[in-house]
Give the backbone structure.
Amino acid sequence: MENHSIFKSNRCCVIITGASKGFGRILAKKFAHSFFNQFSNDKESILKFILIARNENELDSLANELRSIDSRCNMVTKIVTDLAETKAIDDINKEFEQNLNNNLSKPYGHYILIHNAGSIGKTTELCDTVTVNDAAKRHVYYRLNLYSIMEMTSVFLRQIKTHHCHIINVSSLAAIKPMPGLLDYCVGKAAREAYFKQLANELITTKQSKTKYRILNYAPGPLDTEMFRQLQQESTLQKQFQETIPLKPEDSANKLLQILYKDEFADAAHVDYYD
């Protein structure tokens, strides 16, 4: 590790999908607190947020909360779009072109891209119940939960010019452990992790870039969110989830910050909250 810190530069840009609520919203606030604690005496430090979600009002509210954390946290760009739609990547590409370097005299020294957006899909589907009649709905599911991640990461990599970059995939135990009823969720999470392992091989193993990339698949554990409550009410594993005590999103966000701080994970590793 180059230095015992999360942020490798006092000029940092953090991009979070699914930022309007739940874990994504908590992550934005936790990263802001951590950055300004690290650079508390540095008046020239810059933290830029690019927040992506469908709900503009919630993004506005989050932007105000971030500004209240520190007066220097005044560079917040909102991208209001639906990642389940193909036009979302065009929206993101345009905003990235305008905001990733923002005509600064000095470029950002550290980028952090957090793929947090996602959905649970059907909660009672088994492999032998899949039919072609569901093809259109399944395409929408994988556009949100897989294709948009691949496309957005590609857009991001073509835009950035920096020395340090973290790419974090918010994953799940479902990526490595089958869960009856959660067919698309398990397949989608596993495919995302496979994609980031491929990306790590291209960016890190082959040493084709001067940028130091760190890629992490982080499973935050069962969080007390709308998704968890949905699983308690209607999934094939309803009883199991009803007996599970969920984690506070704040605690899992703190664990992620600790993992990044220690910087001991293998590239593209699957790291769980409970590890």
